[in-house]
Amino acid sequence: MERNANFIFVGVIALFGLISLGVFAFWLGKYGSNEDKFQSYRTYVSESVAGLKASSPVRLKGIDVGFVEEVRIDGENPERIQIDFKVEKNTPIKTDSIIVLNSQGIAGIGYLEIKGGTNGSPFLSAVDKSERPVLLSKPSMISVITDKAELILSHIDKTVLKIDQLVSERNIQNTTTSLENLSLISSELKNNRHDITSLVKGAIVLEENTNQTLKDFSSVAQKSDTVLEETKALAKESTELIREIKKADSVGKLNATIENSNQAIEEGKELIREGKVLIKSLQESPSDLLFKSKPSKPGPDELD
Question: 272: helix, coil or strand?
Fold first, then answer.
């Protein structure tokens, strides 16, 4: 019985070895013997690569176009992961293509997804002549969601802390005191509402009087402006008159005018005197005006 068990164990080991040899032969036949059909590439990621391993598929629009060769920590920067992979040479890897780490399901097997790459962009292998052209990577959706969730949780923690501070015993007591003070103020306002009404009415009357006073001041200011303008005009005319008087020609005319005025005054006085004599004569003898002859003055030839 024990001998048969040993035979069974040996048979299982031999069967496992044959299966492993077959898998290796299949891999060798698919990839190992067709090295010239693949192009080597490299990319770097900063997120977790859980589920990704050597031989994980590389896909373009859901189609397997290559496989992962090696996944390891970058020797120059320990904060990122270096991933070497190969894709078929006829795969259109462009300069604007990117690598995204995906997984089948939330915690399934990881694989690399090639995205982007416009038709007019050149091939990456034609621009980067190195043995392994470097393809840029982009964070996966799971990584973005995880980072956002951590940020949201951080904000939630801060919000909860502020709420705890807000509803502390001290703040509750302060709020209660404030409400009591508001109630007291409301009661006082209610008791003195008549005084407040009178005060408001007085303020309205004061406002009306103030507005009227401002209107009166405005009117006075306008009249003052008018008087000021007239005064300026009078001062201007006086200046012009003084300027004219100061001229010699004007002074002569002024003196002649004064002399003529004096002569006219004297003639007027003489005329008044003659009038008085005539009136007096008429009063004494009104008939002399018609019948009395006045001796004529002798001529030049009659004065002998």
Answer: helix
